[in-house]
Amino acid sequence: MFRSVATRLSACRGLASNAARKSLTIGLIPGDGIGKEVIPAGKQVLENLNSKHGLSFNFIDLYAGFQTFQETGKALPDETVKVLKEQCQGALFGAVQSPTTKVEGYSSPIVALRREMGLFANVRPVKSVEGGKGKPIDMVIVRENTEDLYIKIEKTYIDKATGTRVADATKRISEIATRRIATIALDIALKRLQTRGEATLTVTHKSNVLSQSDGLFREICKEVYESNKDKYGQIKYNEQIVDSMVYRLFREPQCFDVIVAPNLYGDILSDGAAALVGSLGVVPSANVGPEIVIGEPCHGSAPDIAGKGIANPIATIRSTALMLEFLGHNDAAQDIYRAVDANLREGAIKTPDLGGKASTQQVVDDVLSRL
Ligand code: NAI
Ligand code: MG
User: N or C: which end of the chain has fewer CB within 10 A?
Assistant: First the structure.
């Protein structure tokens, strides 16, 4: 589905060898909590694919997260970044736990990793189970991954007039990052146009209030679309203010196709959309950059169920497929999607978040048996 994206990125940013490459080195970064339980699921699926489609995988275990911080003083060790940069074409990232109160020296390694590795897009397909209740939902949320409020420039100071504390955060939107995210979102829409005969891009913003920052996001998205009409002209183009977007997303999710959003809105919309398809445990994502693609389930470290062996592995298994898709291995990815869809459609072996009694490994085994 995203082959052209991988190829296009390849052409301009050095993924060329990856797109054609059959022998892949994959970094495995479980992180904290259920990350440690779901990343092995992704690994087992790739191991099962070994020698199918001519692919072969080599794995490297890597570390990041709160436990790593407690043990080494660094949430994202230099070695992890170095190995990813120098040796890996792809990686799977589980989840990291963040303490609820500020811990000196700690900040989320996934945000740093996205920035370090130039992973400018977070692509999050949200799809309901075929044959399930209600109208089918099948959308892709394309979240800008490097800026907005997540640049984490914050300061706290005392307001002179009242003598009380005030905290400010900088929201950054740049032309370059917006052009990049609009282009990949339109390329994804184009691919969907080719396979389904129609596609719509919805640009999410709040430019009625934030006329400069979100105004720029909106303006550049439109410009990318308008100035490439020969390529994207058959894609329908919509804009939607983020609050009414949430309302529409919950009332008529089947109306959405490809959504592009600045970092924070994209984060919130995709967790919300996950609720529409049953569980955070089934929603995957891929962090896409010029040099590497990192598959990452949308969920966090889920401390409430960690260590019980009941985390839903499907978000990670789908993230593994998404990673392969962006590396140009669409056939292998489709095999994985089909196996997962079959498991969900049959519904006999599912984890408690979907109302079942199965363990993580039982779901993995079921998916493997369908591959
Ligand atoms: P969460 O996604 O970890 O959990 C939310 C709810 O969904 C919980 O009830 C959890 O049990 C359930 N859930 C999530 N994934 C599941 C799965 N695979 N199978 C079954 N149930 C699942 O979000 P929460 O509780 O807000 O955050 C927990 C920790 O994770 C925090 O420290 C947070 O900072 C971190 N986090 C990390 C992310 C990352 O590493 N990318 C993303 C989101 C949160
Ligand atoms: Mg999130």
Answer: C
Q: What is the mean pLDDT of the chain?
A: 92
**Ligand 2 geometric centre to CA of 297 (Å):** 10
Domain final position from 218, 245, 278: 278
- Please tell me whether residues 114 and 136 are part of one structural domain: no
Q: Report yes or no: 97 and 306 within 8 Å, Cβ to Cβ.
A: no
Ligand at shortest distance from the CA of 95: 1
The CA distance from 348 to 345, in Å, is 9
Write down the pTM of the prediction: 0.90
Mutation to probe ligand 1, out of 67, 69, 301 (largest number of atoms < 8 A from CB):
301
pLDDT tens digits, one per residue of 322-345:
999 999 999 999 999 999 999 999
- Condensed to tens digits (0 to 9), the pLDDT of residues 213-268 reads 999 999 999 999 999 999 999 999 999 999 999 999 999 999 999 999 999 999 99
Contact 280, 318 (CB under 8 A): no
What residues does ligand 1 touch, defined as CB less than 6 Å away?
34, 95-98, 110, 279-281, 299-305, 311-312, 315, 351, 353
